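Extended Data, panel c. Modelled sequence:
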Amino acid sequence: MKKAYAGITGKGGKSSLVNALEFPRMRNATIIRLETINDSGVSGCNREILLKGRDLGKLETELAKVEDAIVDVGASNIEAFLLALNSQFESHQAFDYFVVPVLARASAQIEMGEAISTLTALSKMGIEPERIKVIFNRLPKDSTVADECKPLLLFHKKSPIFSLNLDAFVYETEAFAALGAINKSYIEMLLDDKNYRQELNKIPLEKEKERMEMVKWVRAQGTVRMLERELCSAYQALYEA
């Protein structure tokens, strides 16, 4: 299985979704980053490759070496990537799916317009709607996709050039900030079975510095476990529903 996460905007959360939504469910995959300035975060994958968006030949070579791959197209390389795909007949066939993250905020009109531009560009290449997916990211917990993403839903109603499932969403989360505080990847924390809350309770109250440090681990573990429940549902809605 080979998937490409793409989008003109740099605010859709492509890299975070690659690291947390895709890689934990495709653990044998190679992650290929097409980027120059984007911070992809810590994935926990030991098979990461860095290329530029215009290097279609190198990308196809790397894809041919593996069964599973997740390509993270950085915003700084998306135009070069799309141009490269257009330069070769049906080069998009190297991918099973193209996933476009959408910032699920009513205030993010510019970003939503950029997502629509990306979806349109992919469709014009001849990519079938069932191979173009949308994942709604950073949805406010007190809202719905229908309320926050009306322009994109209206666009889909008029031009159903991509697959749409309103259950394919991820709420706004503090998990990634919490992971950054302890410098751990999502997959590392997900697989960590140590009970950090129990460890916190073992530290005497007078050792305040140690307790405060352990609180970071408790927070990271708790937010990741809550997020994982949401990601499982989102992944099923994205590919299996």
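The first helix runs from residue 14 to 22. This feature is highlighted in the accompanying rendering.
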